Amino acid sequence: MTISQSSAREAFDHRPTYVPVPSRGKGTGTAPDRPRAATAGLPGPGRRPPADHPGYDYERFSRLAGPLTEPVPGADGTYHVRYRALCGQGGHRVRTTALLTAAPLLSLTLLIWLVQPGHWLHRHHVTWWQTAADTTMLLSIALIETFRVVNVASNAHATLVARDPLPVPPEPGTRVAFLTTYVPGKEPLEMVRATLTAATRLRHDGHLDVWLLDEGDSEQARALCAELGVHHFTRKGEPRWNQPAGPFRARTKHGNYNSWLDAHGAGYQFMACVDTDHVPLPDFLERMLGYFRDPDVAFVVGPQVYGNYHSTVAKASESQQFLFHALIQRAGNAYGSPMFVGTNNCVRVAALRQVGGLYDSITEDMATGLEIHTARNPRTGHRWRSVYTPDVLAVGEGPSSWTDFFNQQLRWSRGTYETLVRQFWKSVFRLSPGRALNYALMVTYYPMSAVNWALGALSCALFMVLGASGLHIDPRIWLMLYGDAATLQIGLYLWNRRHNVSPHEPEGSSGAAGMAMSALAAPLYARSLAGAVLRRRAGFVVTPKGGQASPDRLRTFATHLGWAAVFAGCLLCSALLGHRHAAMCTWAVLALLIALGPLLAWRYTLLRARTRG
Question: Helix (H, G, I), strand (E, B), or coil: what is residue 297?
Answer without folding.
Answer: strand
